[in-house]
Amino acid sequence: MIQHRANMDWMLKDLAESVPQTRNVVVLSSDGLRMAQYGTDTDTADRLAAACAGLQSLAGAVSSEFPHSDGKMRMVVIELDGGFFYLMAAGAGAYLAVLADEGVDAGLIGMKMRDLVARIGEHLSSPPRGEGSAA
User: Fold this and answer.
1) d(CA 86, CA 118)
2) Which InterPro entries match (predicted)?
3) pLDDT of 1-55, one tens digit each?
4) What pLDDT does residue 127 have?
5) pLDDT in tens, 118-132
6) Could you give the CA distance from residue 49 to residue 26 in angstroms, rounded to a whole number?
7) Cα distances (Å, whole numbers) of residue 2 to 105, 111, 116, 124, 127
8) DSSP symbols for 74-132
């Protein structure tokens, strides 16, 4: 299991507080394990992380329809009643997920997510687990 990285929470807090109407920020591994969170409880963060793993897999499947795609998901945006969901690749085997209210500035949240990933992407990675690793 991936250890929760409490020292990353302040970086997520900075993202959440710099964009009005941001609700939750979660960093997850590609297999859906929560690595860090801000603005939500652990159970909600775990559910979001698990759902995001499926979503990034679906995005990869859709990418096969583009002839020059490398098959890697960069960003998924879903507009829902009440808000938006953003999922962005954030390092080797890691993703950054954000839930935001309806009135969020979509351009600002995208820019802040990209800035965060560019600044600290190497800290937001989840190396593959080797054979025989404890689960």
Assistant:
1) 16
2) Mycobact_SerProt_Inhib_Rv3364c, Roadblock/LAMTOR2_dom
3) 344 455 677 788 988 999 999 999 999 988 899 988 999 999 999 999 999 988 9
4) 57
5) 877 666 655 555 555
6) 7
7) 32, 28, 21, 12, 10
8) -EEEEEETTEEEEEEE-STTEEEEEEEETT--HHHHHHHHHHHHHHHGGGG--PPPPTT
Q: Which uninterrupted H or E stretch holds 24?
A: strand 22-29
Is 76 within 8 Å of 60 (Cβ atoms)? no
| Residue in the structure block whose two tokens are 């945006």 | 77
At which residue do the structure tokens 């909600």 appear?
44
Report pLDDT digits (tens) over 60-92. Answer: 888 888 888 887 888 999 999 999 999 999 888
Strand order across the 34-38 sheet: 34-38, 22-29, 94-101, 83-89, 75-80
| Angle at CA of residue 75, ends 133 and 9, nearest 5° | 55
> What type of residue is 110?
G
